[in-house]
Fold:
Amino acid sequence: MLYKDLTVWQKSHALTLKTIGAADHIKRSYAGETAFKQLLRAATSIGANIAEGCGRRQGRE
Structure:
């Protein structure tokens, strides 16, 4: 099974896209840029962790 077939990954991907859309409205000051980067890292790490965990079930490490 591919990680892209998992409902939880699909939902995390949708969350990532929504976060990117919402973060585009943050004022581009130093603090705003820092918050944007932090939100983006947090949102994208969810899907990445799911994909990594799914890949660990494939064969030997």
Q: What stands out?
A: Helices lie at 7-23, 30-55. The mean pLDDT is 85. The chain is about 70% helix and 0% strand. Residues 3-55 form one domain.
